[in-house]
Amino acid sequence: MTDANRQGASESEAIDALLRDSYGISGRIIALPGEHDLNYCIEAEDGTRFLLKLHAPGDADDLAMQIAVLDHLAHAAPELPISRALPDKNGSTAIAAELRGRRTARLLTWLNGSVWSKSPARGRQSVVTLGRLLGEMDRSLESFSHPGATRSYAWDIGRADMHLENLAFITDADKRAVVRAVLERFVDEVLPRLRQCPRQVIHNDANDYNVLLDEAGTVSGLLDFGDVVETWRVVEIAVAGAYALIGADDPVDAIACLAGAYHAVNPVSDTEAELIFDLTCTRYAVSMCMAAKQIRDNPENTYLLVSQEDVWRELQRLQRENRSLAVARIRDACGFEPVPHGVRIERWLERNAHDFARVLKPSLAKPKVLALDLTAAGPDAGAWTTLDADGAERLIEERVAQAGADFAIGLYAEDRIIYKGDAYETPTAGQRRTIHLGIDVFAPAHESVHAPFAGAVAFIHDDAVEFGFGPTVMLEHRTEEGDIFWTLYGHLSRQSVARLAVGQAVAGGEAFCSLGEASENGNWSPHLHFQIVTDHLGLGARMHGVGVGDKWQVWRAISPDPSVVFGFSTPASVIVARDKDFLVRERHRRIGRSLSIAYSATPLKIVGGEGAYLIDEEGTRWLDMVNNVCHVGHCHPRVVKVAQAQIAKLNTNSRYLHDSLVEYSRRLANLLPDPLNVCFFVNSGSEANDLAIRLARAYTGNRDIITVDHAYHGHLSSLIDVSPYKFAGKGGEGRPRHVRVAEMPDLYRGRFRYGDAEAGRKYAEDVRDQVAALAVEGRRPALFFSEGILGTGGQLTLPADYLKEAYAHVRAAGGLCLADEVQVGFGRVGSHMWAHELQGVVPDIVTMGKPIGNGHPMAAVVTTEAIAAAFANGMEYFNTFGGNPVSAEIGLAVLDVIRDERLMHHCRVIGDRLMDGVRALAARHEIIGDVRGHGLFNGVELVRDRETLEPAAAELDFVIAEMKRRHHILLSSEGPHHNVLKVKPPAPFSAEDCDRFLDGLDDTLSRLPPR
């Protein structure tokens, strides 16, 4: 046995004795790397793992601080995946030990996972979860303090200036120069701003050996609190970012992603966001100084070499990035405007546009322009990629002549195929700039170019390369608020630019230069590239004219839409299509989060629709079985045609006379029995139900409402009050005093069930009881709300005579009865136009919405002349958009399609086919408890036990997810227990669609995971 082996065996024996005597455990001992401390993985005999740390002699305050930090986090944030200290037999979490000298021993819980640097699963999810973990941890550490945390610590990059004296230890001159520049920038630019930022205790070392990942790439643990220090909070993000970006295709994206995730749980200031990039570079510079010094002092410690090769490579990568652009991207990731003053400049442009001079051809007061399409999908796509400048100019002239236009333009934000050469590459491998940042105006060479508003020449550059800008000028402008921005003019004539000088004033409207010939501006056809610039990224007139699509929100802030300058009658910009992750992020930032996203785990980006199908951005067709709004089919050509035709002629309010409105009100009223013959037109089902309440109160003089349990009638405050689905649910405020709730008539799991011929009467007795309860208080009902089939109740069909009996009880007390047909109207139930007709009743008020306009926002209330007359009490009722000509024409078209395509009958036939098919499946799948509905408004209730009726909500979630994932069928859940499969597809849903659904459901139920 060698001396080294004997020493190893002796140390193992000492560790084993320590574990056995102090902690009562024994097991396999595996040495782990460490810079100062000795670290071991202990695999106990029962399989449990522990981390044993034998701390080197040193500052007792440092060790006490580590112990205190973990103790604080154990109480303040017990959910965080960090090690917890375990006491020895005497209750101490730190004990004396002898191994290679005197040490302090601590036994900690083991965290499972692979270290970041070696995990094959690391990716974007890793970065996001690390950012969130650090943000949550630092938020928990805000209140923590310890004397040891105030130490002057060389690894605190907030004190990076101390390393200027260590530059000499870096022997490589190139490396030393780069590190010097980073440290000097820290001293001159970063540190003064850093002093404005919050300070606290941070972990300070989330490196790629201290972060653990699970098999999915999610952070599962954070190790080693030996570098804890009190410093500026933002240092935490920079340190972690320096390691998270290693190996990433786009290092700035990794930093931004980490910062954004941190900010989401622990918001940073905009100053902090702006310092993260520089501080990340500073971390690399400090690491190189520390390594150089320590390797000189202790060359045999190989731990000091860990990551040093990565450090230099990644620092070089960051040095190749445009700093201003990187800062803008990090600001954006943290929810700030990428360019702080960008929005103010856009407002200034909008506010002053009326004073702008025309940039080209000022003699044309209202020029007619032709917008060219330079995308891969454009009609001349093949030509743009093959023609030379002369050929392209001839093609443009031909297209302009064909259109009878004055000149052609190229669009802002267009994704173009024409950009060639290395100039359009980015530091990220495989990523090119292709999104146009300006507007092109095609005109003959030597055409004068005018300044739209006053400015001064700020930059001049001759981009004399193939596909370059050629001679380029940037004018500087200043707003009244002191914000500076620039306008860029590319493809100019060399002769005209030669007359300009930096600092030269240019008046608004002044012709200060002219367009160049193809030979002098990159071999492009003669045209002006005009661009607004809020941040020239330090490039001056070398500014990019083309941006990156997947970072468009940043490029758009740097160069906003210049359409405001030109004021063309033709749109001069397009919307850049974005991926789903970005759209979700922006929805969360800009749209109220109470608006949910369908299938939020794997959302869909829908760009088209046809019949019963939705179409995503990749062209995948999804069978839509939950969209009763587009009742006659998505994008039905008859509906689309009349909408386009009418909106091209007139759309105004209903105070003016219009044939379509009168005809539509006649057609709609004729679908209902007398005396329902007076119409009110609104814009949504919620508006319709709100108006119905007002009608009932005006007619009866009463205020109280009776509603059915778990019902939902709209999102307005008045409707939330009568919707137990909302007011009795999460975030609700409970039942208002003026509302009474009647028992939900559920034939499957209610008090009175299938087979009880008197169930309808019995359930209606609770309506009678609610009327009686009001009477005890000296009040009477104004209105009774009910659907013909209870949607949010779980697609419940009503027992026979329920509405007939309930209406009688309400009317006997002087109240009115409303049929809410917002969900179920217009022939969906198959046997009738309206669901309330299934009950053989005539309501006093009928409300309609959703399917009435096939996706167009319109709705209606139909009532009696007497009720309408009582509402005409001197207060005019006017709805700006209700009953407008476009809505009336669309409403008529929907009625025509229902009639001409026999959709009511179709709903009955296909609905029967669907329900018969599901009932057949029930013979093989006991989880199917009940199948109910009329026409194409159906519910399939899943239960774990047909006797106890235990709801199978989790199983339904699986069914919905798998039907989407495997079969591209869109479904949803309903009911108080969230265990009812809701079926309400567009009416054109075919027999083939029905069979596809049945096959998919059979397959999915066969694969239900065991409970």
Describe this structure in words.
The protein starts with a helix and ends in a 5-residue tail after the last helix. It is α+β, with helices and mostly antiparallel strands. The chain is built from 28 helices and 40 strands. A hairpin with a 3-residue loop joins strand 5 (95-98) and strand 6 (102-109).
Q: Brief overview, please?
A:
This protein has 1011 residues and is an alpha+beta fold.
Query: Strand share of the residues?
Result: 15-25%
In helices, the fraction of residues equals 25-40%
What is the rounded Rg?
36 Å
* Mean pLDDT over all positions: 94
Task: Describe the strand arrangement of the main beta sheet, using strand numbers.
Answer: 12-13-15-22-19-18-17-20
Structural class: alpha+beta
- End-to-end CA span: 56 Å
The low-confidence runs, each spanning 5 or more residues with pLDDT under 50, are: none
Number of helices: 28
| Largest sheet descriptor | 8 strands, mixed
Number of strands: 40
Principal-axes geometry comes out as globular
